[in-house]
């Protein structure tokens, strides 16, 4: 979802990278949360729930009762205030809160029972409110502040530091009336975010076209699109339809019409909701003493401020321009071979033209490549890669799941079970439509295993030998990178430091780094094998590598437009601008292609809820990811010793150290933009350390 029509994904992990991130970044929990005027946990008497939903609601009620009692206990702690008497009980409380909220967030997004999804949404709101109250508890804050951690272990000192930071950013030092206002605003933000996500999830649109308009699409795709009684073929705005159509369909009108519907989802419903969400966030930020919500939400990130985030966006934009212009010139030249009168490339044409250039100029045909990527072999090959690099074994886990298509696995190191995970990998009605990694149980050293869930929408639901797009293999690697980070990092003492608990603008780095293995010949040929048993040929892998730089400039430019949109919407008083007008201004400045008429991207960009102002984290993390990968590029992509060092320095610490320290521990220096510049084929001059 991160890239325009490129199927990049939304990291939705319930890591809670700060002790109180539930409050500061509401919307992280759920993707498809129901919303209504009444978001209480219990349904009204007129509602008859399914048995599964009723049981889940009872569990939720029980957890909330335990949390309510736990909050009372925490607020009545008596001196002396020590690690054992304060931090340990707080940790116990957070484990229950994180695990409860993680499960509801997952079930909101993927559970097949609509009643249960409704209950999960209401539970999410209740857990969020408890998190808000925790963050605003003056007695607990004073108890935590009184704890002397001077002689404690470094991870305990870190936990103490980020907890106090979270309290202060939440407004715990404000008077009672202000704290009540903050709580009400957080509740409103949660409900608006749930409504925003729900509208995106539920608005699946369709177009109907003649079979002749499917010319150019793969045979297996066409075979899966039966002709209706009206003589038309129905195509949806789900990724399983949009990516093939944007990439292969010869019909310019088909691509244009589908993209218009795709980029108009949740409009007009989400326009007012987004305006209200931005206003509530702005009011919250000002109540907390910040000029804008962007200033608030970046305060505990690597950037540290909205100003530095904007500087990064501008620097990145300047760096990527030569490559973006080069890519766009090539697309326009290719378009002129089809339409000599063409003067500009439209959004719905970009992927199609990129594919033509790769096929004609690099002899890389994505449609023909698909034969080498059956889902089952890609999955097993990825497992083998992880096992080789990190010395672990992945085995099936015999356990109940929420749907028959869900796979479950256990991860062992030698004979020791260290983690578990689920994979919900294929599309179905009512399920989150993109790709994401969800924390499902926070890992606590010597207490409970980390459990995470991978959610994607690949082919293979009916037949595990159904083939995937090469771009989907990239998505698989990316999301599995999040999964590894959550599992390897989920061995901490403190819940707030466990898993993907680093600053959020580092969270995408390990996932984006793992994508680089998709171009490694040894890795690809270990699993990219067609039905005849033939591995992907050497020369095709070499051509893939030669073509990989093409299009990266354009992708980077589009990404930085999304980053600017996300930041700008949250970096000004929303009463001073119109959503569409401001988007068009930013699009004209940052985007290499014109806006498509009658589309409303801001209404269906789910990141505006989940990531709020900090979409820039994708590109910030990309810069770091390529710098980290430079070590593997130099020392070998199958280098087990280096992979173990990477695991120990980057993944396993979770949030126990600042991200910049983790990076320097691995690289032996601060990170820089140089590796990213080289990936674009532009001069790295001036692309030094990120300031």
Structure description:
This protein starts with 20 loop residues before the first helix and ends in an 11-residue tail after the last helix. Among the domains are: 21-199, Glutathione S-transferase Yfyf (Class Pi), Chain A, domain 2, CATH 1.20.1050.40; 204-255, no CATH class. The protein has helices spanning 21-24, 51-75, 83-110, 114-135, 138-145, 154-170, 176-202, 219-223, 239-248, 252-262, 269-287, 293-298, 306-338, 350-361, 366-369, 375-390, 470-488, 509-514, 521-527, 538-547, 552-570, 579-590, 607-610, 617-635, 640-651, 659-667, 674-680; strands spanning 206-209, 233-236, 393-396, 407-413, 416-424, 436-441, 451-455. It is mainly alpha-helical. It is 54% helix and 6% strand. A hairpin with a 2-residue loop joins strand 4 (407-413) and strand 5. It has 27 helices and 7 strands. The strands form 2 sheets. It has a 5-stranded mixed β-sheet. The longest helix has 33 residues, at 306-338.
Query: How much strand content do the residues show?
Result: 5-15%
The global form is globular
Helix content: 40-55%
Strand neighbour order, sheet with most strands: 3-4-5-7-6
Which CATH top level class of the domain at 21-199 fits?
Mainly Alpha
Main sheet?
5 strands, mixed
Oligomer, anyone?
Answer: single chain
In terms of structural class, how would the helical and strand content be classed? mainly alpha
C-alpha Rg (nearest Å): 24 Å
CATH topology of the domain at 21-199: Glutathione S-transferase Yfyf (Class Pi), Chain A, domain 2
CATH architecture of the domain at 21-199: Up-down Bundle
Poorly predicted spans? 1-47
